[in-house]
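Weekly structure sync, notes
Attendees: PL (lead), two postdocs, one rotation student
Agenda item 3: pending single-chain targets
PL asked that the sequence for the first pending target be pasted directly into the notes so everyone works from the same version. It is reproduced below exactly as submitted, 137 residues in total.
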Amino acid sequence: TYFIVGTTSTSGSLSVASISNTNAVSYNANTGALTAVSVVSSSDERLKTNWVGFNKDFVSRLADVKHGSFERISSGNREVGVTAQSLQKLIPEAVVENPEGFLSVNYGGAALAAAIELAKEVKELRAEIAELKSKIK
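Predicted structure, written out during the meeting:
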């Protein structure tokens, strides 16, 4: 059994933390990278209520979210992602603001919800194509 160990300090910084001798989970404070073999979120339906679906124009608006590769100012590393500000306009629940006013994105939740909406649209388009093909014959 391994436990996450946290430290607080008034001087210096934690440069690397690891909770497993197999590096199943590690954190590099120099880059801000948290690495894990698997990330699992609590998602049992019995823990959720008041479901609200996305608007019909969700997929169209998803295409307008600012995305791509960028250079992170703090580290100089090239990364891939979206801007929290542009995603917040579409899925405000996927964006969290910290006490200093900086925004973070729940990438896993947003990506899964977007993939499901895209799958629904593909399913509808396939049905429409099949219907059109049947009329041609």
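Discussion points:
- The mean pLDDT is 86.
- The first strand starts at residue 16 and ends at 18.
Action: rotation student to compare against the earlier draft before next sync.
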